[in-house]
Each structure stands twice: as structure tokens, then as C-alpha cells.
Amino acid sequence: MQRLAPALRDDDVPLDLISLIKTILAATKEISFRVSQAQLGGLMGSTLDENIQGEIQKKLDVVANELFKDIVLESGFVKAISSEEEDTSVAGDENGKFLVSFDPLDGSSNIDINSLIGTIFSIHEAIPEMAADSPDQFKQAGHKQVCAGYVLYGPSTMLVMTTGKGTHFYVLDRTHGGYLLVERNVQVPKDTREFAINMSNQRFWEAPMQNYIADLVAGDAGPRGEYFNMRWIAAMVGDIHRVLSRGGIFTYPADNKNPDKPYKLRLMYEANPMSFLIEQAGGLAMTSKGRIMDIAPTDIHQRVEVIMGSANEVEKCLSYYK
Ligand SMILES: O=P(O)(O)OC[C@H]1O[C@](O)(COP(=O)(O)O)[C@@H](O)[C@@H]1O
Ligand SMILES: [Mg+2]
Ligand SMILES: [Mg+2]
Questions:
Q1: Ligand 1 mean position to 106 CA, how many Å?
Q2: What is d(CA 233, CA 132) in angstroms, rounded to the nearest whole number?
Q3: Buried b vs exposed e over 296-322: b needs ≥16 C-beta within 10 Å?
Q4: pLDDT by residue (tens digit) across 191-228?
Q5: Is 22 known to sit in a ligand binding site?
Q6: Which residues contact ligand 1 via a Cβ below 6 A?
Q7: Are 84 and 69 in contact (CB under 8 A)?
Q8: pTM of whole model > 0.90?
Q9: Which atom number of ligand 1 is nearest to the Cα of residue 53?
Q10: CATH numeric code, 194-319
Q11: What is the ipTM of this complex?
């Protein structure tokens, strides 16, 4: 099995980006260790603080954020970082070539039940004319990402990453301490019979999503004439990993549960990096109005509607909005 650096060189990834990726992965190895020791180290449960998103932070959210932020900012390659757990962007090296956005721990509600969680990251090139402490430099569309990935802290610690030359799977090999390439150019099947959505929000969705899901749930007795299975891990990393592994449609649609918060998932830290991975694997990543990676961001913490996965099924879902 190929090691990470030669696999990246095969994709013609520039050396400075390889160095940054290695730095990010060093942080994820440390987080992976802390996650595995969380209960023994008193890291289960919540803090008393809320993050900028208005969500109570778990102790591991804070630890993972500090670890990732410190390691990445010390690298010298990074002009600034933005994180789901930080109020605003944090300046790094004025001459740094890259911007890194991340969700240090995705699926926080799974921490205390020893279930799937992960770290999601996204890399853009820095804009030389903009100051390192300006959050505006992060307002770049997703299609400008030069790398995106996640690390899944599951039975195996897995890295899924793209630099725009396909989406590849790696596994952390604890015998030598590095990630090994296990599957190159993963492909999301175009068709699927599996969907992922938080069904408990059903009554709050817009009519097109209500109608689409109702037709899936109706199964072979309904207009689709086929049985559809449902899965919901409650961690986007876990649900997207399943979609990348065997196909499926994943959606967190608009809802009116809380009128001030029509969408749940974050553009910079969740939707854009996952969209890059899904598109590089031949899938589609959309809102009901267009491609996620074409959205011009207006705020680093903005939230967005997400419909992604197997291409034909995403198209089918979108047809309900026309
Ligand atoms: O609570 P719900 O509705 O099941 O939402 C689950 C979604 O929320 C998230 O956990 C949000 O991520 P964080 O844990 O980083 O806040 C997604 O990963 C997941 O898809
Ligand atoms: Mg998240
Ligand atoms: Mg998070």
C-alpha cells in the first residue's frame, strides 16, 4: 500500500501543499488519540460555554479545536484559519500561502455514546492583497478549494481527501504512524436505494422535500415502485462516508423549526469540503437552487441547505423543486 506523500506526488500536488496536509494530519493523529482516551482522560461531556453557532461546546470540541488550530498555525504555511468553534478567523503567518477552514469535531452529539465522529477540513489559497486578520479572505467559493478532506475516528481512523484529482481513501496505520492509501478514485454509484435525513424534522420541511421523502418512504407501493432504505448516523462525516463507500443521498434541507435558522450545516466547515469530495467522486452536491460550490459566501459561519450524493437521485430530488 502506498504511503501518503508519494500518493500526493502522483497527483502532482505541490510540495508546500503536501507539507500543509502533513501538518493537518499530524493534528488529526493527536485528536484520534485523544478521542480514543476521552473517557479515561475526563474529556466526555459538555463545557459550560456556547460557541458562535449558539451550540453548547463539548469538552472534546474545545480540545480538538485548540490542537488543530495550534498545530496548523505554527506550521508557517498558513495565513489564517477559520473554525466552527472560533468567533472569527485567526491570523497566522502574514506570508502564509494557504487558508484553512475546519470543523474540529463533527458529530458532537455522538461523543458521549462512543459513536462516529470526525474532523473536516478545507484549504484555499490565501489572497496576497488581504490582511492575515481579515475574515473576508475566507469568502471564496467552494470551487476554489485546493484540497478538502475529513478524518473519521471510527473502528479504523480513515482519511478521505481530494486535491482535485479524484477522491481517495486512506487508513491510519498505527504500526508506522502514517496514513496508507487503500482506495484511489472512489466513485459514488449514480443510482441508489438509500437515503439519509433527520426524519424527526419532517413536519418543518418545505413541500418539495416532504413530497420527495414521502415517495421514497412509500416504497414499492408508491410512485417510485421500489423500496428505499434509510440510515442516519447524526454525524455528517459518517453519513457522507457511507455515501462515498456505497452510494446514497444525504440531505439536510431547509426547515422552519426555528425561523432564524432555516439551515443547519455550515458552508465553510461542512458543506463545501464534502461537496468537493462528492463531486470528485462523480456525485452531485447541491442546494435546491444550485451548486453548493458556486455559492459566494457572505459570512464565514453561514449555514446552507445540503442535498448531495448519487447523481441520479440528487437530480430526482431536485426535480420536486421545479
Ligand atoms: O442533530 P441532527 O439533526 O441529527 O444533526 C446532525 C448533523 O449535525 C451535525 O452533527 C453538525 O455538526 P457538529 O457536531 O460539528 O455541530 C452534522 O454532522 C450532522 O449531519
Ligand atoms: Mg459539524
Ligand atoms: Mg463540530
A1: 7
A2: 37
A3: ebeebbebbbbbbbbbbbbebbbebbe
A4: 999 999 999 999 999 999 999 999 999 999 999 999 99
A5: no
A6: 55, 84, 103, 106-109, 198, 234-236, 252, 264
A7: no
A8: yes
A9: 16
A10: 3.40.190.80
A11: 0.98
